[in-house]
User: Which sequence fits this backbone?
């Protein structure tokens, strides 16, 4: 990612009091035209998709979940019969891209996404960053939308509000503890302290195809997530040829399936 | 709340909380925020749910921090867990439900977390409540999809496990596999992802593990409980691997809960200590599957030691499990040596009654007879029968200290054969009138019956170390707990927002009215007070007083009009009545209780109509239809004081326990009799009229603690409240009261020996006749025990609590010497025979000498053949006994202290003895001058109470004196102490009362029925008849008569007798899965066992018991395999359940 893209400097958006940055390509050409980028993203999507669970159950009997394999059958949720991308594909791809951005373009010390088809309610990626030497948690949601930027941002904000109100606190803590136990959190970073920290940060990463400068989006960000502006941010990934981008990405993956 | 939360948010985050002190301090502060909101009584003030956020996060941090240190569970960790449980319960109760039915989303998630955390602390009662609230919510959810049905069933299984409704949890879990199969089909219909199957599998696994834990606890099979713990562990691990955070979290938490369940399992712990299965089954029937921490502490201290159990000093708050500790001491003591007997000493008749019911209900299952001797110090011809009953092998007798003292004076040697004696409310040692008797008794027992084992129970004493020293440090252990099973919040009423009116001319100067608003200043239990946290709740009541201008200074004029403590208490009670629960308001006098009740305008929910109707009818039958209590009971409020007949007092107590009456205004005398917890206790003032000392006095801290201890109903509410309304709203008075009572220190709860006063008297004079009567009696008690020589007395005094507390060895030596001299001198002057007689009566030697003088010339009247064959013995005997009695200083108390000829009492006492109504007794007492013309029914009740207590004692002493003078005492004379004690006409009715029937008219009715079906009118026959009368109560009293309910509650507990499961022997052909659910079927005449896949795995050895248990229908029955099955060997066990 960092070979191809950068983030613009953060700008302050007064309405909603948050910071905003955009992903742009270093070369100035569109993402779609970066073959190497598209290939690596395709591989990342496949790797993530194939990491989903299968195997024994504790209670269920006579149920088998198919093992991951690079077949059209196994990838049926991502593609239509004729190899076109489904809504699930967009979701999987955007989540993968979001994680990649957090890992490669942001000064995070650790970032982790959810498993495919995850039921975790209000975050797609959790990243840990240093704020003047103190590790903090950032809860990231990703949205991919061609025309409904405002609506999707509002949905994400509602989810963030619930996280902020502690509605999903046990799940979030369990996730962080799981990362800590398996050594995926850096040494000295405590899941509990990340969780309790009153300055948890939130970010919405949106892939879109709209002129967002003309839109009033995330206007209630500071109401849903109160406190210092550092807590609220948005990343925007503008995809110019929307359909072509997804078709090209889908095609790159579909070509690898038997 | 907002400002406190903001304050909380500004304090260091846990990142900076490195020291435990800081952590604990923060915990308290968070708790304060909750309290203020929870106790806010402003209906208009909606809680700000946005503020929940800070609490949730804080709770989570605390929860996680505490769980990390779970292995070192101490006060601080427990406090953190408890706080977190409280916060979760609080935020879970705040918000609307919004159709959220998932246990992973608020509010159910909050409640579930609360129940889990409470399960890990001493507040298990809170977990039960919260778990049941989750169930109540889930019961309203009727999901349409099969997947949701599975999730609902899993949630219910978990909620019931945490609510300790193990049977419901297990029953629900038996459906999980079928529901999971249906859900799998549903997933298949929409080509679900692997993750969806994984989640379904994890949910079902958690549910099955919860059901397994439930069945393990239910049947007491720890292998099954451990299996459940392993299942939780496996599920949590799998969820972690699968990235399913919510099931991972729940699995881990429930694994911790199962560990604590295993550690505290009643079955496991008691079986390991050899307690009989029958007793464990009774506990199981009552839902006691887990021992609470103080009970485990007592067991670790040697409560069930099979060889040489120590004495135990147990200080637990009310409701924390003292009764079970006592029961275990009795069971293990009698099991250790079945040829011994046990005793339970309770300080009041009401408590004797309640304890007897509790013990009888549980102990008879293991063959232990429970006898009740409901009396004071009076003696009768029944003494021999009572002693026989008392010393019956394998039996326990519940009685008062005075009665035990009487037995000990008359038959000390039988106590050699006593295995255990339990003294309840042992802090009564501090009591100026009874303390010396109790201390003397305990000291006599430890010095003269060294094999006996004592268990001293109290809720409020602090000087355990001195008691340890007293009973013998090497042979005594102490068990102390400060936490109640429900939290308790305490507060003091304070005045603020003072507004001074304009001056107005009045007699002798200017006055101005000062109005104020009253609020509460609340604190939460002692641990929190250490950190000085207080919650202010303004504007609950209002009041006023007047100030007078003295020169140029305005000062409060106490003689001018002002609102009273009672006014404020009534308003507070009205505000408290808005929320659910019961409220007990203690006022200082019976008149105050009645007037407060009249003024109460609070809203009482219109429920319990049948109960209130029963209560009203009963009160009307006892006091007359016009009595104001009749109408009040119908509204759900009542008053309770000593001027009500015992029967009505018991009825009001029953009404309070059942929730029929929601607010009761009572005098502090109720503390002696009430064992019923309430939600709120309000104390209107802290001073009272001490009739003994004839002066106004402040209630003692121990008494306050005792009263306050009633607040908080375990398993019914999460919190109890105690509110003190000071005598004055002046700030200094409020602060003093709060410091003295709410912040009561250990020194104030130190129990002090009352022997020092005896010592002072003995130092003053060698002449026993110059000593006060109560000290004479104490001294004579020692004589009765054979402690009359200098050496034996020295041995005795050196073993008293007094000697421990007053370490001057020379003093005890001197006292022993002087005591021996006093006794020798008494023998010389009064004669050894009279000293011996006096020592058995409990009266002073002065009084006994007087009785000898009065009765000696009249002995022929009392002998058989009686001189009153043709006349009513009441007319012949009572005047003589009465005349002699009223000359005794010990007896002239209360209504009997009134100056006048003894004859004025004769007529009302005759009516009392003939069972007349109080109205009739009142009329006759007014007519003869025993009561003033202004006396009312309450005065008559109190008069009868005085007659009952004091004259029964003196009539008993007269009997002892007469027996020393002549033989062949007439049987009516022999029974007269009991007849006058209980105000009944026949000996059978008196026996009924003696055995625990609290109401004289009920006793009379029962006696009439009893007479028809017993072989003879002996005490033991009556006792047998009562124990077997449960089946015929409905024939004696109709169901709509409260007497029916009262008698049942006094004699039998109305608990479900249906066993929840049946244990049968099974022969397994293959090794079976521990805790696995199995099906039963008939196959070629045999009752076979099939596993969940339908495979034949074994057969039931004795099928008939299963058919009987299932009423012939196997469809609704399932079995659970208990461990060690397999290989075709018989001897394995299987638990059969009926599944609704």
Assistant:
């Amino acid at each position: 990612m960092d070979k191809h893209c950068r983030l613009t400097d953060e700008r302050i958006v007064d309405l909603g009091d948050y910071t905003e940055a955009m992903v742009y390509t270093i070369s100035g050409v569109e993402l779609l035209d970066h073959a190497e980028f598209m290939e690596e993203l395709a591989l990342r999507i496949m790797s993530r998709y194939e990491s989903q669970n299968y195997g024994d159950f504790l209670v269920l009997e006579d149920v088998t979940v198919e093992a991951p394999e690079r077949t059209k059958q196994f990838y049926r949720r991502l593609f239509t019969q004729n190899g076109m991308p489904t809504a699930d594909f967009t979701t999987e791809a955007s989540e993968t891209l979001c994680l990649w951005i957090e890992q490669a373009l942001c000064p995070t010390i650790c970032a982790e996404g959810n498993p495919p088809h995850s039921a975790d309610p209000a975050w797609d990626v959790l990243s840990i960053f240093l704020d003047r030497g103190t590790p903090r948690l950032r809860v990231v949601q990703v949205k991919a939308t061609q025309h409904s930027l405002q609506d999707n941002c509002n949905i994400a904000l509602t989810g963030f509000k619930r996280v902020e109100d502690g509605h999903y606190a046990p799940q979030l803590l369990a996730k962080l503890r799981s990362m800590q136990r398996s050594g995926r959190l850096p040494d000295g970073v405590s899941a509990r302290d990340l969780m309790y920290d009153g300055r948890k940060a939130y970010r919405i990463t949106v892939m879109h195809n709209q002129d967002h400068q003309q839109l009033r989006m995330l206007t209630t960000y500071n109401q849903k997530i109160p406190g210092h502006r550092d807590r609220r941010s948005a990343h925007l990934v503008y995809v110019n040829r929307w359909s072509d981008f997804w078709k090209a990405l889908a095609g790159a993956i579909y070509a690898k399936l038997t | 709340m907002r400002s406190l939360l903001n304050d909380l948010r500004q304090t260091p985050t846990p990142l900076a909380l490195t020291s435990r002190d800081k952590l604990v301090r923060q915990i308290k502060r968070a708790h304060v925020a909750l309290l203020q909101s929870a106790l806010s009584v402003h209906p208009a003030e909606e809680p700000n749910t946005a503020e929940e956020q800070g609490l949730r996060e804080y709770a989570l941090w605390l929860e996680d921090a505490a769980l990390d240190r779970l292995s070192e569970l101490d006060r601080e960790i427990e406090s953190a867990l408890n706080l977190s449980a409280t916060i979760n319960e609080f935020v879970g109760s705040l918000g609307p439900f919004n159709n959220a039915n998932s246990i992973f989303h608020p509010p159910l998630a909050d409640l579930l977390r609360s129940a889990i955390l409470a399960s890990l602390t001493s507040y298990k009662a809170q977990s039960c409540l919260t778990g049941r609230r989750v169930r109540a919510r889930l019961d309203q959810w009727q999901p349409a999809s099969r997947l949701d049905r599975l999730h609902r069933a899993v949630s219910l299984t978990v909620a019931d496990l945490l609510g300790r409704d193990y049977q419901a949890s297990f029953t629900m879990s038996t459906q999980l596999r079928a529901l999971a199969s249906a859900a799998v089909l549903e997933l298949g219909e929409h080509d679900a992802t692997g993750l969806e199957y994984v989640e379904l599998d994890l949910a079902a696994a958690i549910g099955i593990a919860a059901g397994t834990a439930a069945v393990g606890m239910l049947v007491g099979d720890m292998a099954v409980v451990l299996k459940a713990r392993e299942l939780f562990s496996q599920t949590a691990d799998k969820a972690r691997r699968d990235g399913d955070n919510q099931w991972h979290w729940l699995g881990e938490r429930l694994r911790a809960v199962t560990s604590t369940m295993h550690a505290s399992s009643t079955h496991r712990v008691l079986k390991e200590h050899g307690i009989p299965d029958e007793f464990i089954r009774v506990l199981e029937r009552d839902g006691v599957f887990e021992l609470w921490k103080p009970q485990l502490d007592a067991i670790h201290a040697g409560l069930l030691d099979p060889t040489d159990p120590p004495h135990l000093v147990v200080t637990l708050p009310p409701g924390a499990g003292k009764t079970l500790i006592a029961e275990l001491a009795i069971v293990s003591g009698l099991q250790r040596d079945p040829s011994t007997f046990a005793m339970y000493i309770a300080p009041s008749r009401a408590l004797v009654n309640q304890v007897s019911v509790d013990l009888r209900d549980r102990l008879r299952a293991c063959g232990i007879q429970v006898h009740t001797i409901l009396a004071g110090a009076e003696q009768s011809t029944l003494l021999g029968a009572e002693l026989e009953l008392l010393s019956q092998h394998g039996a326990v007798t519940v009685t008062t200290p005075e009665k035990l003292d009487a037995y000990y004076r008359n038959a000390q040697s039988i106590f050699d054969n006593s295995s255990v004696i339990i003294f309840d409310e042992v802090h009564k040692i501090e009591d100026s009138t009874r303390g010396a008797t109790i201390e003397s008794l305990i000291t006599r027992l430890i010095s003269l019956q060294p094999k006996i084992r004592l268990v001293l129970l109290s809720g409020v004493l602090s000087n355990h170390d001195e008691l340890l020293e007293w009973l013998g440090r090497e042979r005594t252990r102490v068990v102390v707990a400060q936490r109640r099973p429900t939290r308790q919040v305490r507060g003091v009423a304070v005045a603020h927002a003072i507004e001074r009116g304009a001056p107005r001319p009045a007699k002798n100067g200017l006055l101005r009215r000062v109005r104020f608003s009253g609020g509460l200043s609340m604190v939460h239990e002692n641990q929190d007070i250490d950190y000085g946290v207080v919650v202010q709740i303004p504007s609950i009541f209002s009041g006023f007083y007047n100030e007078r201008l003295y020169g140029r200074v305005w000062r409060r004029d106490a003689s001018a009009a002002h609102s009273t403590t009672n006014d404020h208490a009534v308003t507070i009670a009205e505000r408290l009545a808005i929320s659910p629960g019961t409220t007990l308001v203690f006022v200082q006098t019976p008149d105050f209780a009645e007037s407060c009740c009249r003024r109460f305008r609070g809203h009482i929910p219109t429920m319990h109509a049948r109960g209130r109707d029963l209560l009203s009818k009963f009160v009307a039958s006892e006091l007359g239809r016009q009595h104001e209590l009749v109408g009040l009971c119908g509204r759900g409020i009542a008053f309770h004081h000593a001027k009500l007949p015992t029967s009505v007092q018991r009825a009001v107590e029953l009404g309070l326990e059942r929730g029929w009456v929601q607010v009761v205004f009572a005098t502090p005398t109720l503390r002696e009799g009430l064992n019923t917890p309430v939600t709120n206790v309000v104390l209107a003032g802290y001073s009272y009229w001490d009739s003994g000392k004839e002066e106004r006095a402040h209630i003692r801290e121990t008494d306050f603690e005792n009263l306050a201890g009633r607040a908080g109903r375990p398993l019914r509410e999460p919190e109890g409240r105690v509110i003190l309304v000071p005598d004055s709203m002046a700030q200094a008075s409020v602060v003093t009261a709060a410091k003295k009572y709410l912040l009561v220190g250990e020194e104030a709860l130190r129990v002090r020996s009352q022997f020092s006063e005896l010592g002072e008297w003995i130092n003053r004079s060698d002449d026993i006749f110059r000593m006060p009567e109560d000290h004479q009696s104490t001294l004579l008690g020692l004589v009765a025990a054979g402690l009359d020589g200098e050496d034996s007395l020295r041995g005795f005094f050196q073993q008293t609590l007094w000697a421990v507390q007053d370490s001057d060895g020379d003093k005890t030596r001197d006292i022993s010497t002087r005591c021996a001299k006093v006794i020798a001198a008494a023998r010389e002057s009064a004669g050894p025979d009279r000293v011996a007689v006096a020592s058995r009566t409990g009266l002073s030697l002065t009084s006994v000498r007087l009785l000898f003088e009065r009765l000696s010339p009249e002995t022929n009247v009392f002998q058989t053949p009686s001189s009153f064959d043709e006349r009513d013995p009441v007319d012949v005997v009572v005047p003589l006994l009465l005349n002699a009695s009223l000359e005794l200083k010990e007896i002239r108390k209360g209504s009997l202290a009134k100056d006048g000829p003894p004859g004025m009492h004769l007529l009302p006492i005759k009516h009392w003895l003939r069972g007349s109504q109080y109205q009739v007794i009142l009329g006759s007492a007014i007519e003869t001058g025993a009561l003033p013309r202004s006396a009312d029914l309450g005065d008559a009740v109190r008069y009868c109470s005085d007659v009952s207590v004091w004259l029964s004692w003196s009539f008993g002493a007269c009997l002892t004196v007469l027996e020393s003078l002549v033989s062949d005492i007439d049987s009516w004379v022999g029974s007269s102490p009991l007849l006058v004690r209980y105000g009944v006409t026949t000996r059978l009715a008196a026996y009924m009362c003696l055995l625990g029937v609290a109401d004289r008219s009920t006793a009379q009715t029962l006696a009439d029925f009893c007479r028809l079906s017993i072989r003879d009118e002996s005490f033991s026959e009556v006792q047998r008849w009562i124990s077997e009368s449960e089946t015929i109560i409905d024939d004696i009293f109709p169901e709509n008569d409260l007497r029916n309910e009262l008698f049942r509650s006094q004699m039998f507990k109305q608990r479900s007798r249906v066993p929840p499961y049946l244990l049968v022997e099974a022969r397994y052909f293959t090794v079976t899965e521990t805790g696995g659910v199995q099906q039963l079927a008939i196959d070629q005449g045999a009752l076979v066992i099939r596993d969940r896949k339908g495979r034949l795995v074994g057969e039931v050895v004795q099928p008939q018991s299963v058919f009987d248990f299932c009423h012939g229908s196997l469809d609704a029955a399932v079995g659970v395999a208990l461990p060690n099955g397999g290989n075709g060997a018989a001897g394995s066990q299987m638990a059969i359940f009926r599944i609704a």
